[in-house]
Design goal:
This protein is of the alpha+beta class. It is built from 4 helices and 8 strands.
């Protein structure tokens, strides 16, 4: 930054500082590279973009409702853990309407090699409405790892038993079309502002 400022000052003192489009672009590039622009976004400012052959699904996070689950999901996305995994389970029947994925074995028995704490007793937990993103788990407590499900319809009977940590904000029509065996080509984190316009208060 000091070197850039010195260069500009030197050029100016020698009457070589001419305002031209080329020089302005060069100056902005040099100075911009030195400015501390942060690429780190909070979970509230990020979304998970799930790419499938059926289309794209955009998921927002609820860190106030389940900070451990959100951090775990983001960690797995950054490790590209979900790339190439399938939706191994779909239930669309009276009493249960979900699609589930995130198992590296492809049959509902696998995980990332660790488990996380349940958060369904968190007072900020959200209800299981259509589009809710939640952690799947075994019958044992604190057994969630990488598997998640998305509600195809409201599932109020799951409230208080499974951790909700996000929801679909775009592509619910794609979720409806997903079937067992459909592949998550990739999941990537992107800025939420790309998908949600800010509203004036």
């Amino acid at each position: 930054m000091k070197a850039t400022c010195y260069l500009l000052a030197k050029l100016a003192s020698q009457n070589l500082f001419y305002i031209s489009l080329t020089f302005l672009l060069l100056s902005l590039t040099l100075i911009g590279c030195a400015l501390p622009f942060s690429q780190n976004l909070t979970p509230e400012e990020q979304v998970a973009v799930v790419t499938t052959d059926k289309g794209t699904v955009v998921l927002e996070f609820y860190p106030d409702a389940a900070p451990v689950a959100v951090d775990n999901f983001i960690k797995l996305i950054n490790q590209k853990f979900y790339d190439g995994l399938t939706f191994h389970r779909k239930v669309d029947a009276p009493g249960l309407n979900i699609i589930q994925g995130g198992c590296p074995e492809g049959d509902g028995t696998g995980g990332p090699g660790w488990t996380i704490a349940d958060e369904y007793t968190n007072p900020n937990q959200r209800p299981h409405v259509r589009g809710t993103l939640a952690m799947a788990r075994a019958s044992a407590p604190n057994s969630s790892g990488s598997q998640f499900y998305i509600c195809l319809k409201p599932q109020p009977h799951l409230d208080g038993d499974y951790t909700t940590f996000g929801g679909v904000i775009q592509g619910m029509d794609v979720v409806d079309q997903l079937s067992m065996g459909d592949v998550m080509t990739k999941i990537r984190l992107e800025a939420k502002s790309k998908y949600v316009k800010a509203t004036a208060e």
